[in-house]
Amino acid sequence: MDYVIQTEGLSLVYKRKLALDGMTMALPRGGIHAIVGANGAGKSSLFRVLLGFESPTAGRATVLGCDSAALTPELRGRIGFVNEEHSLPGWLRVSEVTRMQRRLYARWNQARFEEVVGNFNVLPEQYVTQLSRGERAGVSLALALAQSPDLLILDEPTLGLDVVAKRAFLESLMFTALDDDATVVYCSHQMEEIERVADNLVIIERGRLRHMSAPDEFCERVRVWVAEFPFQAPALDGLPGLLEVQQIDGLTHLTVFDQPDEFGARLKLMGARTVRSMPTTLERAVNGFLSRGHVSSKRAA
Questions:
Q1: DSSP 8-state code for residue 93
Q2: Domain 221-298, what fold?
Q3: Under a CB-based contact definition with an 8 Å cutoff, are residues 157 and 84 in contact?
Q4: What pLDDT, in 10s, does the model give residues 205-244?
């Protein structure tokens, strides 16, 4: 299989902190790969290594078949990057930024740039400093897509955008025609975005790869069991596949991973008066996976 990104035992110590811990991962070429994880999981550190901004402490990473620490100018021209800050030179007009970028990229697609930026009502004569955060996000995405990249990395690109700007950004990403083998790596905390755009879900925790599959496949493997115990719930920590326990208005909600229907019978044997199961959302499934063993209590709104 052709992999656009591969890491082998990748570790990074950053400011005396172990940001990446022996990560081994392979992302196949094509589609949209969503990388999720709690704050501090290592997502931004991974991107810094992949883009050649940081050298790994141990292990290695390859991007488009090249060691990330030795990316050539030609290869860098095939990688698009949009971060959450949408950093653009504020003293330039949009037309001037576009002209500058167009000279840098041999595969520049002006029609694609105009198609995308048109979704954000940005005028060429506007100075970047005059743009709203959503408009800057749109210009950043348009510039990256116009490069005709083989790999497009998006690091929290919709953070802080209003609903209208976020919708325009996602629709521009989804409906802009890229090359068939172009690959998008999308990092976001917004699970509704992941559900909408992602072909592949990558969960990172404490600098390591913890899970990778299609989002719907992952959700099918996570279920929520609701049990009513007549008195205090027994100790549940040892249950197989347990991700999260929540006490909600006297009912025990258990989020579990890869457990068959017999899990309900086990709860009955532990004294549950009633037991039922229900599917879960991607957000709850991911949050449960990342908070394994967590127990909390709350009241229904």
A1: B
A2: Alpha-Beta Plaits (3.30.70)
A3: yes
A4: 999 999 999 999 999 999 999 999 998 888 888 899 999 8
- With CA atoms as reference, report the closest residue to 12 among 24, 23, 3: 23
End-to-end CA distance of the chain: 48
- Closest by CA to 300, choosing from 247, 254, 256, 225, is 247
The Cα 225–Cα 259 span in angstroms is: 10
Q: Is the pTM of this model over 0.85?
A: yes
Yes or no: say if 181 and 29 are a contact pair by the CB < 8 Å rule: yes
Per DSSP, 184 falls in state E
Dig out the tokens for 238 from the structure: 């040892």
3-state secondary structure of 15: coil
The CATH-assigned architecture of domain 3-217 is 3-Layer(aba) Sandwich (3.40)
Side chain identity at residue 10, one-letter code: L
Separation of alpha carbons 270 and 170, rounded Å: 46
Cα 14 to Cα 56: distance, rounded to the nearest angstrom: 9
Question: What's the one-letter identity of residue 69?
Answer: A
Sheet holding 222-228, edge to edge: 274-278, 222-228, 251-257, 242-248, 294-298
The tens digit of pLDDT for each residue in 100-112 reads 999 999 899 999 9
* pLDDT of 151 over the 60 cut: yes
Q: Where are the domains of the chain?
A: 3-217, 221-298
- Please, how many CA atoms are within 13 Å of residue 175, restricted to the half-sphere of its CB? 9
What is the average pLDDT across 19-47? 93
Residue 177: how many CA atoms within 13 Å on its side-chain side? 2
Tens-digit pLDDT profile for residues 239-278: 999 998 888 888 999 999 999 989 999 999 999 999 999 8
